[in-house]
Design a protein that fits this description.
41% of the residues lie in helices and 13% in strands. With 288 residues, it is of the alpha/beta class. A six-stranded mixed sheet has the order 3-6-9-12-14-15. A five-stranded parallel sheet has the order 1-4-7-10-13. The longest helix has 17 residues, at 59-75. It is globular.
Length: 288
């Protein structure tokens, strides 16, 4: 994957709009998020930021230092191993600055869209879906650089630590949310576009083919409900909604709601449900 810039879009979803503050004061997303984290009163966050390093460096570097320390301490319990991983992550973030911007845009989306998130500090420190996603991004870079052993090592750590299994070859966009996260499985040839929400227990699985595209493609703004199984090289269209517990083995058209086992079309809509966490189903009788 090329070293692309990850930029968040302005979203107006009922909370105080962070992006309007960015525009008003002329600050970058990273500068603004760093300011908000520093202003947070959470003592655990304050301690982490203090230990991650100081000095007058750019906000992007400050953020990557704090993120590197957070992930290294989350993944490894031994202090010496954690310190080694911290240094490794810092070097990787320095070479690939888009990783910090992606982490920032994911955090912004998590705060702006998830009604359970009330402050940046708690989401940054405690949301394992966010942590697993950032570790995947590191593993994906390593995979792209043909450092497959290291990429697999990160995949294993993520799975062991958070019970979230993401193949490092999968291609994931920005502003993604893994809500709760437990039990999410994402296969090797999966593609997930921007602004997608996956809930706990979601499987984006394969068909058993030996090679080629064998996992799903999830288009922008789709939302996949808890426990859903999306199987095969099928497409979940832009803004589609998959009801919890569904088993999907056929393409889902854009802006369509499906539900059941096997999943069937139960409604249509005109919005991107991932932006508002809309998991509602039409008011009809369901027979599974």
């Amino acid at each position: 994957m090329s070293d692309q810039a990850y930029r968040s879009r302005e979203q107006k979803l009922g909370k105080n709009n962070l992006f309007s503050a960015v525009n008003a004061f002329g600050k970058s997303d990273l500068e603004t998020v760093w300011d908000l984290l520093q202003a947070d009163s959470n003592p655990l966050l304050n301690d982490l930021l203090a230990r991650s390093g100081g000095g007058k460096v750019a906000s992007e570097i400050h953020f990557s230092m704090a993120l590197s320390l957070l992930l290294s301490e989350k993944l490894l319990l031994e202090k010496e191993e954690s310190l080694y991983l911290y240094r490794f992550l810092q070097e990787l973030y320095a070479v690939h600055p888009h990783l910090s911007r992606a982490a920032c845009s994911d955090l912004m989306a998590l705060y702006d869209r998830n009604p359970a998130v009330r402050d940046y500090g708690t989401a940054f420190l405690e949301f394992k879906g966010y942590h697993a996603l950032q570790c995947y991004r590191v593993a994906h870079i390593l995979w792209e650089e043909k450092r497959e052993t290291s990429a697999r090592f990160f995949q294993s750590l993520i799975s062991e630590r958070w019970n979230i299994d993401i193949h490092p070859a999968a291609v994931l966009g920005e502003r993604l949310i893994f809500d709760h996260g437990t039990g999410i499985v994402i296969g090797e040839t999966t593609i997930i576009e921007e602004d997608v929400v996956l809930f706990q227990g979601v499987t984006l699985g394969g068909t058993g083919k030996e090679s080629g595209k064998r996992h799903p493609t999830v288009r922008q703004g789709a939302i996949i409900g808890p426990g859903s199984k999306i199987l095969g090289a099928i497409e979940i269209g832009q803004g589609a909604k998959v009801g919890g517990g569904s088993v999907v083995v056929k393409n889902v058209p854009a802006f369509t709601c499906v539900f059941g086992n096997p999943a069937q079309v139960v409604g249509r809509h005109t919005h991107l449900p991932a932006l508002t966490f809309d998991q509602s189903l039409p008011a009809i009788d369901y027979i599974l």
